[in-house]
Amino acid sequence: MKGKERAELRAEAHHLDPLVHVGVAGATDAVLQTIDDALRTHELVKVAIGRHAGLEPRPVASAMAEALGAEVIQVIGRKVTLYRHAPELWAKPRLVPPWRRA
Q1: If you count Cβ atoms within 10 Å of the first and of the last residue's Cβ in the chain, which end, N or C, has fewer?
Q2: What is the DSSP letter of 17?
Q3: How many helices, marked H, and strands, marked E, lie in the chain?
Q4: CA distance 102 to 82
């Protein structure tokens, strides 16, 4: 992904609330499945990593992205933004991206 595309997605993600929270158990299969579902329906997803999880956000973000075939858009503090293109969301012409609710 090019830098300009990543910057546009970062700007879009600024207004998003985290859809998934990673707790003490870490990125379990259930958490990855939930993130996968969110990526399938929204393309751009913000994930919060709990403070008490004892996990470093950047390695967790990389592991999640690799497991899900997504890209890490940004990591700020304990918030991770992931993106994975979902062509089925764009099958019908859209005026707004799927992560924005009109």
Answers
A1: C
A2: P
A3: 3, 4
A4: 21
